[in-house]
Specification:
Layout (H helix, E strand, L loop, with lengths): L17 E6 L14 H11 L5 E4 L7 H15 L3 E5 L2 H5 L4 H17 L3 E5 L9 H18 L2 E3 L28 H16 L1
Parallel strand pairs: 1-2, 1-3, 3-4, 4-5
Helix pairs in contact: 1-6, 2-4, 4-5
């Protein structure tokens, strides 16, 4: 008689998602009251949608892609994120760093996060037209190109509806670089649809 050994199906509970946000001042609440930036609003959105997830905001004002790249390994080891949102690149452009470097750093960060088992969302940026049309176009296209090559998700323009409106200065702090608190719900609205798809 054939002996059947039915193994008890052991189901390990799915680990709660950990979303690591690696960004610059746009994600670090520069010039804003604590709790009013888009990352804080993201936590409220998750609660509202009854999605259990921990958000770790590892954003630093002034951060470049090379700075983020140098910090990422330790953050991956410490927080073991299931999702990594990379919002970097704007400061590279402000400093006139070579596009090739930005692209290499974004690629390296995406690959590192994916190797650590995380899904990656790249948050793209655009520069003002005074940087020259060629540079501006190449910079804007860079995020989508890296995302496509690495099979990552992408938000083409983080400040859509903020920086490209009829009166963009209205939504910016006096330095004209950092959005006011009123702009952050729109910034979250740009990121959330892509991130929500990844969390499903």
């Amino acid at each position: 008689m054939a002996q059947t050994t039915a193994k008890a199906a052991t189901t390990t509970p799915a680990r709660e998602p950990v979303i690591l946000v690696l960004g610059d001042s746009l994600s670090a609440e520069y010039g804003l009251a604590r709790g009013t930036g888009w990352v804080a609003l993201l936590e409220k959105q998750l609660a509202q949608d009854k999605l259990n997830a921990t958000v770790v905001n590892a954003s630093v004002s002034g951060e470049t892609t090379s700075g983020g790249r140098s910090r990422l390994a330790a953050l991956l080891a410490q927080h073991k994120p299931s999702h990594v949102v990379i919002e970097l690149g704007g400061n590279d452009a402000l400093r006139g760093l070579p596009l090739k470097n930005t692209e290499e750093n974004l690629t390296a960060m995406t690959q590192s996060a994916q190797k650590a088992g995380a899904k990656v969302l790249l948050v793209g940026m655009q520069v003002p037209p005074n940087y020259g049309t060629d540079y501006a176009n190449r910079f804007a296209d860079l995020f989508t190109a890296v995302a496509k090559a690495q099979k990552a998700a992408v938000v083409p323009f983080f400040l859509k509806g903020v920086a490209d409106g009829p009166d963009p200065t209205r939504l910016f702090q006096p330095d004209r670089i950092h959005p006011r608190a009123e702009a952050h719900p729109q910034m979250l609205a740009n990121v959330w649809p892509e991130l929500k798809k990844m969390l499903r």
